[in-house]
């Protein structure tokens, strides 16, 4: 029988009958769910999936949610689920897939991403962390930055330079780094909010076995594209209700605190309310296109829109609060497991939202991507294309 | 009623789009529109006959048993997207949407007869309200005494092309033939020559009563008009963006295509984002109108509040990015700019729609 929504619903119900939510411990439940192929149904059998269309995951999720089943708290391992897993699936050896995917999905092993460096942010391919082959191992030295979750992570996806004599995109290799290995040092990085959500990671003579390489030596940039494309998919595919984002917090304050209202703030609130609603509809349209099997290029723009909206709305919120907006909670060196804009004060939201147009690709870089890949405008002139990495200025 | 709006285009809608686009490519090229608006007859009668009569598009919103095509606002929205792309000088929005919706709110044989006449496209109707009218407004410019109408309405869009006027008065909604005694239509010089305005004067003109109270029909008509105008604005913005991208790729300055300069690329990418957003909100409004959703008032207000300024912004940027050529009469950008700016005033300004929205979503002004 081919795997359609009805069949998948039946499979999920059979699974629930065999693993009662009330009596099965959380990790055991999640582990069994992975083995049953109901973790991510579009993955292959034996690796948490059933080779089913991706859209059918929603059927499984709805059944499990209705039954009150534990989920794998996807936000806790966002990098692992959203970025590492699809990359391992596409480029990993059978051995790597068997080793990494299950504990990743169940949440027993959290992943982080060792991509950005102090000297290679938007120009990621300019990275200078070196990996030198020594027998069956690679010896890695360098410094990474903006690594969220490094302090909680077991593994990292890492890109490093393995050949400095060829142009920058060609001399990179992609590895899985064990964060518990000697030579990996994680230092909290304090940000403008006061907390230490991110880290610097120093790599000193870290030994990574060649068996932890993903893809061919020198092919790391191509592999990283899979990771980065999946990052943008993960941002675009969410379904949120009206007033589901930051605008809901401000709207509620507006309703509950009439004494704060001014005409100027009302104009700005309504402008942003409309824009937030429109962004929600664009996200919903993108989701419907994905489900229909015709993904549109809209995803490329979603992050740009949300970054600007978050910044404008959180700025408005501080002004709406007036005198109260002058006060701030103490976030000194707190180390959160996840970033959560709700449940914190307006000042935090305002400051943290500034990162939305920088993290995961700056808005300026994303505008270039839209202009070149969606609109087909001519590329920026490149002076780095045919120059060996070691000869680039930095 | 589905809780989640369908924001995509169906295969039938895409087929309809390409049929309309083919017709417009052959019969509504920019030079022809430019030549036409300088003549005595700004409306394109032949194009209207093709669209309305041959293709049967004037009756999309009218059920089959009442002489129409029995389609919905979703299909009418696709037609309007294409008409917007061509700034086509035809009274589709005014007759096939606004006047038709007013009649759909009426009962009685007079309304039924007119409805099927409008649906056939052989009769063109115009609701005699100013183009700038908002759904909530009252209309008292024309008074009725025993079905004899007297008064004057200015700024009526496409009135010069209309065969019949639907006239709201404090004593009900009336139909008046454009050829009747006592009816004068005086064309005004319009900011947007592709949707020309006129002053309509009634001096003891004979009216036929369509409804005892005009307000519900007028409100329904203007709400549908505002909701579907968003699709016209989307089409207009889409054409401008496509054309400007094409131009900036071809135009060379400083030994490079100007479209390779980051200052321009970022602006064009920003316009693309706005068009993408406009498409989602215009589809949402069309779907809400089509399904009779409880959310229609919000969907229409959001669509107009967002899409009207986007169309203007894209038109203004398109002009700037075309440089000197954008300022010439020969280049059609000015037709699009004029349509965009006048449409931002049509059927309620952004501010009006935001005010209405503030009430609807309980975010009241101080």
TrEMBL record, chain A:
<dbReference type="Pfam" id="PF02771">
    <property type="entry name" value="Acyl-CoA_dh_N"/>
</dbReference>
<keyword id="KW-0560">Oxidoreductase</keyword>
<dbReference type="InterPro" id="IPR009075">
    <property type="entry name" value="AcylCo_DH/oxidase_C"/>
</dbReference>
<dbReference type="GO" id="GO:0005886">
    <property type="term" value="C:plasma membrane"/>
</dbReference>
<comment type="similarity">
    <text>Belongs to the acyl-CoA dehydrogenase family.</text>
</comment>
<dbReference type="InterPro" id="IPR052161">
    <property type="entry name" value="Mycobact_Acyl-CoA_DH"/>
</dbReference>
<dbReference type="GO" id="GO:0050660">
    <property type="term" value="F:flavin adenine dinucleotide binding"/>
</dbReference>
<dbReference type="GO" id="GO:0016627">
    <property type="term" value="F:oxidoreductase activity, acting on the CH-CH group of donors"/>
</dbReference>
<dbReference type="Pfam" id="PF02770">
    <property type="entry name" value="Acyl-CoA_dh_M"/>
</dbReference>
<keyword id="KW-0285">Flavoprotein</keyword>
<feature type="domain" description="Acyl-CoA dehydrogenase/oxidase C-terminal">
    <location>
        <begin position="218"/>
        <end position="375"/>
    </location>
</feature>
<protein>
    <submittedName>
        <fullName>Acyl-CoA dehydrogenase family protein</fullName>
    </submittedName>
</protein>
<dbReference type="InterPro" id="IPR013786">
    <property type="entry name" value="AcylCoA_DH/ox_N"/>
</dbReference>
<dbReference type="InterPro" id="IPR009100">
    <property type="entry name" value="AcylCoA_DH/oxidase_NM_dom_sf"/>
</dbReference>
<dbReference type="InterPro" id="IPR036250">
    <property type="entry name" value="AcylCo_DH-like_C"/>
</dbReference>
<dbReference type="InterPro" id="IPR006091">
    <property type="entry name" value="Acyl-CoA_Oxase/DH_mid-dom"/>
</dbReference>
<dbReference type="InterPro" id="IPR046373">
    <property type="entry name" value="Acyl-CoA_Oxase/DH_mid-dom_sf"/>
</dbReference>
<dbReference type="Pfam" id="PF00441">
    <property type="entry name" value="Acyl-CoA_dh_1"/>
</dbReference>
<dbReference type="InterPro" id="IPR037069">
    <property type="entry name" value="AcylCoA_DH/ox_N_sf"/>
</dbReference>
<feature type="domain" description="Acyl-CoA dehydrogenase/oxidase N-terminal">
    <location>
        <begin position="25"/>
        <end position="106"/>
    </location>
</feature>
<keyword id="KW-0274">FAD</keyword>
<feature type="domain" description="Acyl-CoA oxidase/dehydrogenase middle">
    <location>
        <begin position="112"/>
        <end position="206"/>
    </location>
</feature>
From TrEMBL, chain B:
<keyword id="KW-0560">Oxidoreductase</keyword>
<dbReference type="GO" id="GO:0003995">
    <property type="term" value="F:acyl-CoA dehydrogenase activity"/>
</dbReference>
<dbReference type="InterPro" id="IPR037069">
    <property type="entry name" value="AcylCoA_DH/ox_N_sf"/>
</dbReference>
<dbReference type="Pfam" id="PF02771">
    <property type="entry name" value="Acyl-CoA_dh_N"/>
</dbReference>
<feature type="domain" description="Acyl-CoA dehydrogenase/oxidase N-terminal">
    <location>
        <begin position="10"/>
        <end position="121"/>
    </location>
</feature>
<dbReference type="Pfam" id="PF00441">
    <property type="entry name" value="Acyl-CoA_dh_1"/>
</dbReference>
<feature type="domain" description="Acyl-CoA dehydrogenase/oxidase C-terminal">
    <location>
        <begin position="218"/>
        <end position="359"/>
    </location>
</feature>
<dbReference type="InterPro" id="IPR009100">
    <property type="entry name" value="AcylCoA_DH/oxidase_NM_dom_sf"/>
</dbReference>
<keyword id="KW-0274">FAD</keyword>
<dbReference type="InterPro" id="IPR036250">
    <property type="entry name" value="AcylCo_DH-like_C"/>
</dbReference>
<protein>
    <submittedName>
        <fullName>Acyl-CoA dehydrogenase family protein</fullName>
        <ecNumber>1.-.-.-</ecNumber>
    </submittedName>
</protein>
<dbReference type="InterPro" id="IPR013786">
    <property type="entry name" value="AcylCoA_DH/ox_N"/>
</dbReference>
<comment type="similarity">
    <text>Belongs to the acyl-CoA dehydrogenase family.</text>
</comment>
<dbReference type="InterPro" id="IPR009075">
    <property type="entry name" value="AcylCo_DH/oxidase_C"/>
</dbReference>
<dbReference type="GO" id="GO:0050660">
    <property type="term" value="F:flavin adenine dinucleotide binding"/>
</dbReference>
<keyword id="KW-0285">Flavoprotein</keyword>
<dbReference type="InterPro" id="IPR046373">
    <property type="entry name" value="Acyl-CoA_Oxase/DH_mid-dom_sf"/>
</dbReference>
